[in-house]
Amino acid sequence: MSKFDRREFLKTTAGAAAATSIGVGGAFWSTNAWAQTWKPEKGAKLRVLRWKRFVQGDEDLWMANTKKFTEKTGIEVRVDNEGWEDVRPKAAVAANVGSGPDVIVGWFDDPHQYPDKLVDVSDVASYLGAKYGGWYPVCEKYGKRAGKWIALPLGIIGNAIVYRDSHVKAAGFDGIPKDTAGFLKLCQALKAKGTPCGFALGKAVGDGNNWAHWLLWSHGGKLVDDKGVVVVNSKETIAALEYAKQLYDTFVPGTLSWQDPHNNKAFLDGQISLTANGISVYYAAKNSTDEKLKAMVPDIQHARFPIGPVGKPTELMQITQMFLFKYSKAPAAAKAYMAFMMEADQYNPWMKASIGYTAQPLKAYAANSVWTDDPKATPYRDSAALMLDHAHSGPLGYASAACLADYIVLDMIAAAASGSKSPQDAAAEAQKRAERYYKV
């Protein structure tokens, strides 16, 4: 966790308040020093494409902050909220045809698939980093390419083990075991009690990719080495896939088709007692008017993923980034919007409204009280400090982005776990698929 303490945090938030509280239209640009750098084009209008909320407070505050930007600057902003799986292909189409949204709030290292189509936002990143305690290293790796910032990491949608405490205790465990061997025993015990677990094995952008990479890495497997050579067909990967088969035997039926919403629904419906998710399951129960769901709230707990044979945390979490296309007719206005949305006056309330659904990419925001107001949010606080990037341990770029978008690791886990392929055949197929992108 950052050593940037609360006193320093209050100083920066006070500064942000002073910087964003004055002006409408032209007055805003003339009275805010930071805005001089990104003074908008005459008649500027913006279109933003972002993912649709799993937590209502996230979307509500995003739209409120956007409205606030328009009120202060006079710049009209249209926001399109799309399903998680739809953002990536729509961003790719925009890159290919050279038209579409000015700003896209997308996933992982998608910007690295078309870096030459993106505006350099190093000036915005440097401004925000200097003001808010610096970027976490993993966020800097995702945002930069060849020394330039091609995207602004907006946040980390933290992933953790979400479980029913009473069911875990009924299965004979005090909490989530710290190691993968103990975790398998817990899942087996939950199934025996009729309260199984379930992890997404369909084309789930976040939940599926996150837990599948954790499983692979926890046993020492990885897609590529540090030079970008594909090494997934290894004894370590086979060990991970053998473990996946045992774990899959404890799952509720249907997980092979699960996308990101499905495990939320299964948990809240009482079909499963344990899954991998953000804080959205807890948020939904806590804010529900359904008495059955509200009664579930005290029983929902969160824990970090178990550690595998490699002996250290190996977690992937979902990073979301803002990026700006060169075809935009208002790049200065777009930069101003991106900076505005990450200023303390906007970012702090956004985090609070979503009860920590999106963790901070800038270290200063670790002091936000959302992480301590409700102790159940605390496990998500250090997501950016804890996570590995999905290219582990190779470079981010076109190949890593393409392999993630093609679900190579997730498909391999699903095939071996379900028995549609042997672990050996699943690993060999993943090797061939990855080599199509990582060309030596």
TrEMBL record:
GO cellular component, one term: periplasmic space
Family designation: Belongs to the bacterial solute-binding protein 1 family.
Biological classification of the source: Bacteria, Pseudomonadati, Pseudomonadota, Betaproteobacteria, Nitrosomonadales
Predominant location category: periplasm
Keyword match Signal: yes
InterPro entries referenced in this protein's UniProt entry, alphabetically: Bact_solute-bd_prot1 (IPR050490), SBP (IPR006059), TAT_signal (IPR006311), TAT_signal_bac_arc (IPR019546)
Location of the protein in the cell: Periplasm
Annotated keywords: Signal, Transport
Protein name as it appears in the record: ABC transporter substrate-binding protein
